[in-house]
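Homework help thread (please don't just give me the answer)

Our assignment gives two proteins as sequence + structure token strings and asks us to describe the second one. The first is just a warm-up. Here they are:
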Amino acid sequence: MLELTTSYIDSLAPNAAAIKNGLGLARKKSFVQLQRSEGGELLFGQCSGSGKTPYVCSADFIVPEKPVFRCTCPSRQFPCKHALGLLYAYAEGQTFTEAPVPEDITAKREKAEKREENKEKQAAEGKENKPKKVNKSALKKKISAQLEGLDLLEKLVLSLIRGGLSTIDSKTVKSIQENVKQLGNYYLSGAQIELRRLALLLGSNQDREESYTYAVEQLTRLHAFIKKGRAYLTARGEDPELALDHESTIDEWLGHAWQLSELKEYGLTKEAAELLQLAFYSFDDLARQEYVDLGYWLDLESGEIHRTVNYRPYKAAKLMREEDSFFEVACTPVLYKYPGDMNVRVRYEEMKPRPVAAEDFALLSSKDQRSFTEAIKKVKNQLKNPLGDKLPVMLLHAADLGVTESGQYVMTDESGSSLVLEDIPSLPQGTVSLLPFLSAPALQDCSVLVMFEHILDSGRLVAQPLTVIKDETVTRLLY
């Protein structure tokens, strides 16, 4: 029999509004008919709408990892609120009468089966795994254009450095913004984002000295990118295969969007991975001109902390699926891993949820970092890379989490080493102020997910708690 949880249904919704509307349909008893197949893998029914004829919707779980949703409504969201309402009605225990599978769904299932058979046949014949043909002539032209773009970017960066940040005015910021647009002609979308980030720093109304500090860091990152990007593109242009760099993030900086087939080709996959989400938040990235949904997940086998990143461009945000918090274990047949160092980005095409068990918490507590000295050493090595992620996240074990006489929260490991907890500027909200609401036992012998940031003005490395895990209780501080 099909088992559905509210958390899982929430994860299928395209956005928060769809969740609200779907729940509303279920709780207002808007479904005039609720039915299920004999095996329970198909839910279908009719929901009253604005017209005379009810909408016919269904949720097909014949392949549990890849549910198929159908509805006769005109909505462009997928799944629509009617399909979600059908699932919520089932999860809340409303009565579904048993009925034969509709003929149209049977026909669509048969077509899907034939497509899968063709895929398997192609895979067996080796057709599916044939490498995609690359137009090397066009790619070399692109590399040549990117090198020209890097020359343009270098001239701008050097002129800003020679002139000094104190001479930058609104006219200079406008000139930088014009260069942002020009970089699009040179296939340097990654550089566009970082240059726009610099323009935002220089044009902000915040403290001038503070913005200068971060502007200098951004100029340093751009200079490092130009140097490494030029060396990489020159070497790649001389490579007969024109191969991508699958070990570092340089291609992503250059604007390459990794395809799952490419990650698979380079062996950046893991089979039968189980992930437990420990933190999630969304934010507006003005430099990217996108909304970003960011989740941090623990690989229950390896103990690594991975990231899932969902970008929603402003212009298409309403039509794109919005990620959300997930409170179960995501069982993925194949996990795709992007190039990178700490907290590599991951993706999956299929996922089957299961409830979090006591064994999962036992695994979690065995994977946290017990030595703060070793953890900080790893973080510092990450921060030394100018093109690396500047907000590394780690799962640490705290023998004690308490308050000093000065009022600071401090984590202490088993050897007595301590780590001061503070809110970092890069996160959209603080979390340290929430720690007093946790009970004293919850702050003893616990696991804490923390995000690190190097504060440039003071030269200090600061850690902010994201989640506290004690026994089988997970307290997310970031939301």
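The one we have to describe:
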Amino acid sequence: MANPNARPLTVEITHVNSEIIRFREIAADYRWIDVKFFAYSGVGSAKDIVAAVIANAWYDDDYASPSGALPEPSRGLHGPYMLDRITLASFEKSSARRCRAIVRAWAVQLGPLPDEFTVKYDSFVAHVLDAATAVYRLNVDDTDRHRWGAHMGVLGFHEFVIVSPKSKTIALLVASDD
């Protein structure tokens, strides 16, 4: 039986800003690392925070259209996937170390990158992960792709929700190509 005096767990999130690193600045390369930053308030577990991210209008992003200053009207897409196929169960617990290793392996899969650019993207990812206490990785099946989803993430679609309770911030990090 539920405790009638228990406080409901609620988390509210607000989009703060977005940053992107485009590999196009070093070559004819269509890879990018996109990070959306959120502030959160309220109480709840890391999983409650991930659920709030999924429910946020900024999560409804096909990553193929230019991102504006406001979220677009719902297209029901998230990268190469149908948005309604992504649930809290689609995320697995990960770690900052694992996130960094995955992004590094993804970044160099076509060969070495210029040292200056490597420092730039690696320090950017390290900064995003700096105060993380919880990291969740999106893990969905290819059958969840939408009709043109096969044209995105050819070299991989890697997504992490990074929670930093001390600063009450969340980062949604996506590394992919289009």
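TA reply:
I won't write it for you, but here's a hint about the kind of observation we're looking for: The two ends are 49 Å apart (CA to CA).
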